[in-house]
Backbone:
């Protein structure tokens, strides 16, 4: 026994969960809603999804290759970004728009700030907002294959009545991945079971938004209205899949609840008082910017430390 | 009644099935016995024998040298062969007494004599514990006689026996609870004699139902003793966590358990107290779990302190596959050995032979801020932010985040999906802060 053994500081064991398994789980959880998007909107939706995912992964690969950085495309994070971006685009989006969005998300929002873990905004959402500002007409054109008319949220805002059951199932107008509340919830349930996300952000978000809508929505205690607000637009997709993005949400448990409440209030303001019927995307990227501040004031009190005595002596 | 616990923590692979069912076997040493003079926190003991001296079992060979220090006794009879620097578990060289075993195990006079602890004064009990060289056998090695001498003995409300054994793979405390439960209860009663107002709590994780049952039946009718069932979770057996789970009291790094009215001792320590006080036997044996996927027959051994670790591997049938890493202690807080030719000490709980080195296999990647470290930290710290400061060598920032409350349990590192080496960085930072504090 003269040959030396491996040594390192403890601990000597690791859990099975890695960045790769987490990102893969998120991608899996998005699939039911994405598949429903293809069913709802047809082949054009599939082309958008494939384009965004491929362009995102490729952008990451090329950027890292050119800069001589380690290639990280196998961690599935670019796949998730591409998938999320596609789900946030209307099925009528042309291929060039998918390409611009993907490159913007990966290169500008993610890589220029230092890559995975360093971006301060959700890349997919930042790209969506970039496209929304740059190509407003195309980004809000939900007319496909004869299915025309406004999104349920726009109809709701205009004071028309909406079919909540259809909204829950998702056979309505909207972006590719946002329409089906039920398939998004199935995906979210998978993430809860796999312990990828906690209830804190989505529940605080939805609860705060619901309260805001009840108070300021102008419909009083109208359950139909509330359900339509919750299932409509990007709220389900945003609350469970984008507000919960690790990189751009607070790391402290209390901060996550604060973050969710801020999101709920902002979404309420944007939807009810804003010009557009939608508000989730802007609420999330705006709240992303508040994360450092939220974390600063929500650092937990350590075990055994009494607040009034302050520092451990 | 639901099991008591704390917030945070992790559920690593337990690995206890490997060794938990075989009875503990007594192993006699084959080679020379090596007794490092530093087997405890505090000043190393001072050798009180000379090369060539004949020593007997139980004879003092090292004497406590200072207030925080402990005696060391020989576990065999034989001749002092050398007093020299030897390799220790920590990887450092330390002064040690080397004894050539004559195989006769002749005890010193008076060893094994029965004593009735109810007839002893408190001072006598403390003196016997001190003479026996008893230290905290849960791993830290804090001299027990000091622990049993708090400033105000009337302020002690609870005496805890820590039988959580939350480290994966380890089963030595479990085996002792099954095999020598009378000694545990006996030792606890000895301690309770020192603290008139205290209640004794034997704390056991709920993954050890047989041990809970056994001790429950033994303490039936005992007014001052109770078995407390704790939830199975790492690091349930950490001193601060076990106190919180059992009593609801919490202490921080600058407090002693006694500040919260508690005295905490590990199972094997309590047995040693019983043996020292009631059976006039010093601390000269240790229960060691030899385990891991690389070992043929994982099991527990009753080992004489000073025995070479390598002999234990042989006793367990040798390796069945090449070990990638050998750890003294558990996988969460144990010390990796680069050479297993080191002696068993009072604080050696296990020899773990892993076939896979989970650390070397995976390089750290970018932090994705998932917050798993925050959820896992039993001290409710924010390891992710502490690491940012640690990596910048910003000791101030590290301390602002209460970094000194970290006791290096490794939970954050275990759960980190990016394989970041949090605990490792915290260890370094904490050492450097403690060093600079000492210099002031």
Residues:
């Amino acid at each position: 026994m003269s040959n030396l053994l491996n040594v390192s500081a403890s601990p000597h064991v690791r859990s099975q969960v890695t960045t790769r398994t987490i990102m893969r789980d998120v991608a899996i959880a998005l699939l039911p809603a994405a598949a429903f998007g293809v069913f709802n909107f047809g082949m054009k939706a599939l082309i958008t999804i494939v384009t965004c995912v491929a362009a995102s992964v490729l952008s990451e690969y090329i950027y890292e290759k050119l800069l001589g950085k380690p290639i990280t495309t196998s961690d599935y994070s670019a796949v998730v970004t591409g998938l999320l971006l596609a789900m946030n685009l209307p099925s009528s989006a042309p291929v060039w728009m998918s390409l611009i969005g993907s490159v913007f998300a990966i290169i500008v929002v993610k890589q220029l700030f230092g890559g995975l873990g360093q971006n301060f905004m959700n890349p997919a959402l930042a790209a969506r907002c970039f496209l929304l500002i740059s190509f407003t007409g195309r980004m809000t054109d939900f007319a496909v294959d004869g299915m025309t008319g406004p999104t349920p949220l726009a109809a709701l805002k205009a004071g028309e009545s909406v079919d909540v059951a259809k909204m829950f199932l998702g056979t309505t107008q909207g972006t590719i991945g946002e329409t089906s509340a039920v398939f998004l919830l199935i995906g979210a349930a998978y993430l809860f079971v796999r312990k990828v996300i906690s209830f804190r952000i989505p529940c605080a978000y939805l609860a705060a938004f619901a309260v805001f809508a009840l108070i300021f929505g102008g419909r009083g205690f109208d359950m139909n209205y509330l359900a339509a607000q919750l299932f409509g637009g990007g709220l389900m997709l945003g609350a469970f899949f984008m507000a919960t993005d690790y990189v751009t949400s607070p790391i402290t448990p209390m901060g996550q609840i604060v973050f969710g409440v801020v999101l709920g209030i902002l979404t309420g303001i944007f939807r009810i008082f804003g010009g557009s019927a939608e508000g989730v995307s802007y609420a999330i990227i705006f709240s992303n910017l508040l994360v450092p501040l939220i974390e600063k004031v929500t650092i937990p009190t350590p075990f055994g430390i009494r607040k009034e005595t302050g520092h451990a002596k | 009644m639901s099991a008591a616990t704390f917030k945070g923590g992790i559920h690593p692979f337990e690995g206890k099935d490997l060794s938990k069912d075989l009875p503990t076997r007594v192993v006699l040493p084959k080679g020379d016995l090596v007794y490092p003079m530093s087997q405890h926190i505090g000043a190393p003991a001072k050798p009180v024998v000379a090369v060539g001296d004949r020593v007997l079992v139980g004879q003092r060979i090292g004497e406590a040298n200072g207030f925080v220090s402990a005696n060391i006794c020989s576990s065999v009879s034989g001749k002092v062969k050398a007093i020299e620097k030897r390799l220790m578990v920590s990887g450092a060289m330390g002064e040690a007494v080397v004894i050539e075993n004559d195989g006769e195990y002749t005890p010193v006079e008076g060893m094994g004599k029965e004593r009735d602890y109810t007839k002893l004064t408190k001072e006598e009990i403390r003196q016997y514990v001190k003479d026996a060289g008893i230290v905290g056998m849960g791993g830290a090695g804090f001299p027990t006689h000091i622990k049993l001498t708090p400033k105000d003995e009337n302020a002690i409300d609870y005496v805890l026996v820590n039988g959580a054994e939350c480290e994966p793979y380890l089963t030595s405390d479990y085996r002792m609870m099954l095999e020598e439960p009378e000694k545990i209860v006996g030792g606890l009663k000895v301690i309770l004699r020192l603290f008139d107002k205290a209640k004794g709590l034997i704390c056991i994780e709920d993954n050890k139902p047989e041990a809970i049952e056994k001790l429950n039946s033994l303490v039936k009718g005992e007014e001052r003793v109770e078995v407390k069932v704790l939830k199975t979770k790492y690091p349930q057996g950490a001193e601060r966590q076990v106190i919180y789970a059992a009593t609801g009291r919490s202490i921080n790094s600058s407090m002693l358990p006694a500040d919260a009215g508690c005295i905490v001792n590990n199972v094997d320590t309590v047995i040693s107290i019983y043996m020292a006080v009631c059976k006039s036997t010093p601390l000269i044996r240790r229960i060691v779990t030899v385990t891991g996927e690389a070992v043929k027959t994982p099991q527990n051994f009753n080992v004489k302190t000073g025995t070479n670790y390598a002999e234990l591997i042989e006793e367990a049938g040798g390796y069945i596959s090449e070990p990638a890493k050998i750890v003294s202690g558990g996988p969460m807080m144990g010390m990796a050995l680069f050479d297993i030719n080191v002696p068993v000490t009072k604080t050696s709980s296990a020899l773990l032979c892993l076939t896979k080195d989970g650390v070397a296999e995976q390089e750290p990647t970018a932090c994705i801020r998932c917050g798993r470290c925050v959820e896992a930290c039993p001290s409710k710290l924010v390891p992710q932010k502490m690491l940012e400061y640690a990596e910048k060598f910003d000791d101030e920032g590290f301390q602002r985040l209460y970094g000194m409350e970290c006791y290096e349990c490794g939970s954050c590192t275990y759960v980190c999906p990016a394989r970041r080496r949090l605990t490792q960085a915290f260890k370094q930072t904490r050492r450097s802060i403690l060093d600079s504090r000492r210099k002031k």
In short: Chain B touches chain A through 73 residues (CB under 8 Å). Chain B has a mean pLDDT of 94.
